[in-house]
């Protein structure tokens, strides 16, 4: 699905009557379940994956959703450059240096 179609459907699905409302409402839970299937290495200071990373994963998805909107506008932003800057905010140095 293209980013623009995804964005439109996401906004339309805010209406509880929309056929994709439940799917978009469950999106973060689905992403979390998918990401949680992998043995991620995280800094030990953060504790266990399940207890510390859900807010980080949520913020990463929120940032990416927002960056995608700017990417669709004129003039578009550089998606990779924007993510690289946000990545440093989500996974700050030196805490995450050994895990990049």
- Estimate the helix proportion, in percent: 55-70%
Dominant shape: flat
Number of helices: 6
Low-confidence stretches: none
**Overall pLDDT:** 92
Counting helices, strands and paired strands, the structural category is mainly alpha
Radius of gyration: 16 Å
Annotation, overall tally of beta strands: 0
Distance between the termini: 29 Å
**Helix-strand string:** HHHHHH
Report the sheet with the most strands, covering strand number, pairing sense and barrel closure: none
Strand content: under 5%
Layout of secondary structure:
Elements: H1 3-12, H2 21-25, H3 27-35, H4 49-52, H5 54-72, H6 79-90
Helix pairs in contact: 5-6
Task: Explain what the structure shows.
The chain is built from six helices and no strands. With 100 residues, it is mainly α. 0% of the residues are buried. The longest helix has 19 residues, at 54-72.
Using brief descriptors, characterize the structure shown:
about 100 residues; mainly alpha
Q: What's the gist of this structure?
A:
59% of the residues lie in helices and 0% in strands. The chain has 6 helices and no strands.
């Amino acid at each position: 699905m293209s980013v623009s179609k995804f964005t439109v459907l996401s906004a339309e699905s805010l209406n509880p009557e929309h056929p994709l409302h439940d799917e978009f409402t469950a999106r973060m839970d689905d992403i979390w379940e998918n990401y949680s299937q992998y043995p991620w290495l995280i800094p030990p200071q953060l504790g266990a994956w399940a207890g510390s990373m859900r807010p980080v994963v949520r913020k990463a998805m929120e940032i990416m959703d927002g960056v995608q909107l700017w990417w669709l506008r004129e003039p578009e932003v550089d998606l990779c450059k924007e993510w690289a800057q946000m990545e440093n905010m989500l996974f700050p140095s030196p805490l995450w240096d050994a895990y990049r």
